[in-house]
Every structure is written in structure tokens, then in C-alpha cells.
């Protein structure tokens, strides 16, 4: 028994010593792995920082506020003895990244989505040449782009979350980010298809080719982000987000107008001769809605619309200067255009429509909507009544009427008669599954137009909206 106890004691001491050795070895391995990981991270950060300084075409990325926050982090992490968990700059970067994710409607891994968006937005000689369709494979710009995209791919795939040292739950949230804001113009399916472009498995030449194709089809800079713009003095072209999702199928009773408008616009997009267009008719007949539907149909084909009010017509040349060399097609919209008798801006507009000495750029058309057939208000004096102040009354009248002549095509929108109005109401009611008996629907629709704005497509839509609100 005494011998057995002695043997048991020896075995117990051996096992304890063996466990101590295993624990020490495990600690050493963990220390080695951590040290190796820190070393790899340090080397990766140092390498990326060094390469970013050598970027050429896309140096605009270095001026980007998020990338500017990253650069000192890369520099600090490449030094010895730095405690990344104490680096508040990393959390500031993450905060700014979240702000931009909400603003730009970024989803998924927001770091990668942000870098992708920054590349799309960057206007440089390569992206602009691609937009114009002027880039040549293996040409000078193409070869320099190959160099830059090698660096951009490394930036895209860099693990900034490990650099910032955030906990696992936050890391999962920002790698699988779900945007809280409504959908914006950034939701082009073409942009989503670019997400996998920076995979290490794809040849860098293929990466360049995919971006070149995107720039050609969708443009670069703000013209890739937005399809509609409004010009304002002082701020220039401002992108419009949250466009109304109007389709031609939603507009009932304007089939002839739709055909004329789409035929002219398709000719324009295909490089064939096309006319400036005046959309004239009563209020509520679908003129402005037709323009919205036109944009929604053709924005994926390179169509952009810029709205200029008549009060900013004197800045028309500034808009033309900005877009004339772009590879996209632009319709400049003059919505609800009209001039009072005493206003003379129409004279400048006539010159602009004709193009002046320089000529109108081939990628620009002018569409205008108006409730007035001749746009400029006329008086009986123009017709020869009480015209003592103007000897050549006929010339004065022709001067005012000549503005309309500058539009090669006039599309007329007429108010519907009773049967057409009821047809619009019935079609809209069917689309919204309104179950009122037909006679009751018609009776209420006629009462509605009497008390509101008369028979029009807009009045019919307002009537349907009132029925929908009552049913909730």
C-alpha cells in the first residue's frame, strides 16, 4: 500500500509538471501568433500607406475625408509599441463612415461600399475619357489606371476594423450594415454589380475594364450618383434625390404624346437628329409627369435632366460649359415656362435655344412645359389695338411668337372630356383595387371635379387618393 501511494504521488507530480509545460507552451504560441499578427498588420499598414502615396490618376481619394482619417492611423500602426485600442482617431473614422453610409445609402460592408462609391465619384482623366467612350485598351491612360487600381484594390480589401480594434458585435454590424434611410439614386443595380470587382481572383485588367464600362454607361462624379439636377445661382448644379417613381404606364390617356416624346428622346440618345420640344397644354394634363417618366425610363441609358427656372436663364451658358464635354446626354428642362409682357428674358432664351455663335452642344436638348401656347403673354396692343407706342405692331407680335418657333416639336396635352376623365378614374381605381360599384365611382368622380380643378388626369389622381385615404 505504501509503495502504491508513493507511485501515485510521483505520477501526480509528473502530470502537474506536464500540464505546466503545456500551459507555458500554449502561452508562448499565443504570444507568437499575436506578435506575428501584429507584425503582419504593421507590415500591411506600412505597405498600404507607402503605396497610397504613389497613386496617380485617383489622387482625389487622398483628399477624401475618410481616407484622410485613415492615413495617420496607417502611419501610427506601422510603428512599434503603439496601442491601437487607445487610438481615438479610429473611432472618429468609424463615426464619419457611419454618417456617410446613411447619407449615401451604403449597405453591406460599409468600408468597402464607401471606397467603391469614392472610385465611382472620382472625376479624373481616365474616368472622364471612359464616360466619353474615348479610352483605348492598353493606351496611356489605361496603363496608368492598371497601376492605380492595384493600389485601390488593396485599399478596398484592407481590414480597417482590425486596425480600429472594435468588438465583435460592432464589427458584425458595420460589415453587414443595413441603411436606415430611404432608397436614393445610389441604388443602381450596376453599382451593386461592381461590389465583387475588387476580388483578388479577378485580373486587374478585368477590374479596369469593368469600371471603364460603368463610366461609359453611367458616367462618373455627381452624374453617376444623380440623374436629375436643379441649377441655382451660387451653388451650381445640385443633385435631386428621392425622385418620384412615375412610369408612362401610370399616365393614362396620353399615348400619342408619349409616343412623340419617347421617339424624339430615343433618337437623341442614339445620336440621330432630334428636336427641342415644347410640351403645351392645360394644367394637370401630365406634362411634368411625362418628363419624370421619361427620366425614369432612360436614366439607365445615360439620360440626365437639368432643371433651370426662367429666373436663372441668364446662367444658361454656365450649365452648357459644364456639360458640353461629358459623355452623357442632357435634357435641360424649363418647367412651367411663361413670360409676362414686360419681361425680356425670352430674347436671351431664343439665342440660347439656337445655340448662338458657338452652337448648342450635340449632347444637349431643351424641353419646356407651358400652359401658354405662345409662352409670352400677349395683349390687344400686339394685335394692333391702341398701338400708338409701337409703329411696327406686326413685328412686335412676330418677335414674341418666334420663341415657340425655336422648338422643333410641340406636343399638345389637352384636357379630357367627360368620358375620357371617367376612363382615367376607372383605370386608376382598378389599379388600386378600389371596390366601389361603377355607377357610384363615376358619380363621386364627377362631383369631385366640379368642386375641385375640373377634368384632368391630376384631378382624377387626387380623387383616387381621397378614396384611398378614406378606406384606411
Structural overview:
The chain has 472 residues and is of the alpha/beta class. The chain has 3 domains: 190 residues, no CATH class; 179 residues, Rossmann fold (3-Layer(aba) Sandwich), CATH 3.40.50; 53 residues. Helices cover 54% and strands 8% of the residues. The protein is built from 19 helices and 7 strands. The protein has a 7-stranded mixed beta sheet with strand order 2-1-4-5-6-3-7, sandwiched between helices. The chain is globular and about 105 Å long.
Entry summary:
With 472 residues, the chain is of the alpha/beta class.
Features:
472 residues; alpha/beta; Rossmann fold; 3 domains; 19 helices
Structural shape? globular
Helix content: 40-55%
What count of domains describes the coordinates? 3
Radius of gyration: 33 Å
β-sheet strand percentage: 5-15%
Separation, N- and C-terminal Cα atoms: 90 Å
Q: DSSP helix count?
A: 19
For the largest sheet, list the strands in their spatial order. Answer: 2-1-4-5-6-3-7
Largest sheet: 7 strands, mixed
- Could you name the ranges where pLDDT drops below 50 across 5 or more consecutive residues? 27-41, 391-397
Amino acid at each position: 500500500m505504501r509503495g502504491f501511494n508513493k507511485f501515485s504521488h510521483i505520477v501526480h507530480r509528473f502530470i502537474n509538471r506536464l500540464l505546466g509545460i503545456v500551459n507555458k507552451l500554449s502561452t508562448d504560441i499565443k504570444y507568437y501568433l499575436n506578435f506575428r499578427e501584429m507584425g503582419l498588420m504593421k507590415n500591411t499598414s506600412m505597405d498600404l500607406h507607402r503605396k497610397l502615396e504613389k497613386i496617380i490618376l485617383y489622387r482625389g481619394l487622398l483628399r477624401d475625408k475618410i481616407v484622410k482619417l485613415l492615413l495617420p492611423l496607417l502611419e501610427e500602426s506601422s510603428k512599434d509599441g503603439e496601442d491601437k485600442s487607445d487610438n481615438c482617431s479610429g473611432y472618429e473614422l468609424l463615426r464619419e463612415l457611419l454618417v456617410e453610409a446613411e447619407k449615401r445609402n451604403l449597405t453591406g460592408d460599409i468600408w468597402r461600399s464607401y471606397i467603391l462609391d469614392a472610385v465611382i465619384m472620382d472625376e479624373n482623366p481616365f474616368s472622364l475619357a471612359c464616360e466619353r467612350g474615348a479610352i483605348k485598351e492598353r493606351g496611356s491612360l489605361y496603363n496608368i489606371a492598371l497601376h492605380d487600381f492595384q493600389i485601390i484594390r488593396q485599399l478596398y480589401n484592407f481590414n480597417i476594423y482590425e486596425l480600429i480594434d472594435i468588438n465583435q458585435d460592432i464589427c458584425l454590424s458595420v460589415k453587414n450594415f443595413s441603411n436606415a434611410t430611404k432608397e436614393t439614386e445610389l441604388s443602381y443595380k450596376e453599382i451593386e454589380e461592381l461590389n465583387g470587382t475588387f476580388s483578388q481572383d479577378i485580373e486587374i485588367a478585368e477590374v479596369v475594364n469593368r469600371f471603364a464600362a460603368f463610366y461609359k454607361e453611367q458616367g462618373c462624379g455627381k452624374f453617376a450618383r444623380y440623374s436629375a439636377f436643379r441649377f441655382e445661382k451660387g451653388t451650381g448644379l445640385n443633385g435631386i434625390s428621392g425622385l418620384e417613381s412615375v412610369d408612362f404606364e401610370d399616365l393614362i390617356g396620353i399615348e400619342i404624346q408619349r409616343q412623340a416624346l419617347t421617339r424624339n428622346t430615343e433618337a437623341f440618345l442614339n445620336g440621330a437628329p432630334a428636336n427641342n420640344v415644347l410640351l403645351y397644354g392645360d394644367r394637370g394634363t401630365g406634362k411634368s409627369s411625362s418628363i419624370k417618366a421619361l427620366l425614369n425610363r432612360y436614366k439607365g441609358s445615360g439620360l440626365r435632366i437639368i432643371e433651370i427656372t426662367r429666373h436663372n436663364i441668364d446662367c444658361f451658358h454656365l450649365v452648357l460649359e459644364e456639360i458640353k464635354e461629358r459623355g452623357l446626354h442632357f435634357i435641360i428642362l424649363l418647367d412651367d415656362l411663361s413670360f409676362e409682357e414686360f419681361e425680356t428674358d425670352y430674347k436671351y432664351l431664343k439665342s440660347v435655344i439656337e445655340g448662338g455663335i458657338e452652337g448648342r452642344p450635340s449632347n444637349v436638348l431643351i424641353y419646356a412645359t407651358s400652359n401658354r401656347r405662345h409662352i409670352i403673354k400677349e395683349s390687344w396692343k400686339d394685335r394692333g389695338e391702341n398701338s400708338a407706342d409701337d409703329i411696327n405692331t406686326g413685328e412686335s407680335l412676330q418677335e414674341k411668337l418666334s420663341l415657340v418657333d425655336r422648338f422643333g416639336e410641340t406636343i399638345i396635352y389637352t384636357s379630357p372630356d367627360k368620358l375620357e376623365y371617367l376612363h382615367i378614374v376607372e383605370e386608376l381605381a382598378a389599379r388600386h383595387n378600389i371596390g366601389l360599384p361603377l355607377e357610384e365611382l363615376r358619380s363621386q368622380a364627377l362631383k369631385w371635379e366640379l368642386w375641385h380643378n375640373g377634368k384632368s388626369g391630376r384631378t382624377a389622381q387626387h380623387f383616387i387618393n381621397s378614396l384611398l385615404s378614406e378606406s384606411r
